[in-house]
Amino acid sequence: MTTALCPGSFDPPTNGHVDVINRVVSAFDRVVVSVLDNPSKNSMFSVDERVGMINEIHGDDVEVIVFSGLLVDHAREVGADVVVKGLRTVDDYEYENQMAQMNRHLTGMETVFMPTHPEYGFISSSLVKEVARLGGSMNGLVPDVVESALKERLS
């Protein structure tokens, strides 16, 4: 059984995240989605809220947990065989490739890059939050549960 770890901040989860996670679910036996708890980051949603949204979106297809610290230590703790990172742009690749090489250097952990579907390539959590703050349409950007949470948070 091959376990894939999909780490991220998911603040909030977007349709790009959903696309990548759904494709990882179809490619691996077990998928762990790990929500980063980074207290130094000014997140819109708590880790518990983000975990709840991902659970509501993906149900029993994935295990959703919270982590902090080194990704490779966390990957070992959950028994991951591979880390899967979604990519939108060349900039994402540059950053994630450097991280993947460091992780491999530290523990031998392999990273698989999964490009997002082109229709979601422009979506980032930061842009979604900005559009939501300015009252723009969330159509096609986030799942309904996330849109509701954004509207509630910003009202």
Summarize the entry for a quick read.
The protein is α/β, with parallel strands linked by helices. The protein is 46% helix and 19% strand. It is globular and about 45 Å long.
Q: How would you characterize this protein structure?
A:
By secondary structure, the chain is α/β, with parallel strands linked by helices. The protein has a single domain (3-154), classed as Rossmann fold (3-Layer(aba) Sandwich), CATH 3.40.50.620. The protein is 46% helix and 19% strand. It contains 6 helices and 5 strands. The chain has helices spanning 15-27, 47-58, 71-78, 90-107, 125-133, 144-154; strands at 3-8, 30-36, 63-67, 82-87, 110-115. It has a 5-stranded parallel sheet with strand order 3-2-1-4-5, with helices on both faces. The longest helix has 18 residues, at 90-107.
Q: Name the average pLDDT.
A: 96
Distance between termini?
45 Å
Strand-residue proportion: 15-25%
Number of helices: 6
> How many DSSP-defined strands?
5
Class per helix and strand makeup? alpha/beta
CATH H-level homologous superfamily name = HUPs
Helix percentage: 40-55%
Which CATH C-level class is it? Alpha Beta
Give unreliable regions as ranges: none
Query: Rounded to an integer, what's the Rg over CA atoms?
Result: 15 Å
Strand order, sheet with most strands: 3-2-1-4-5
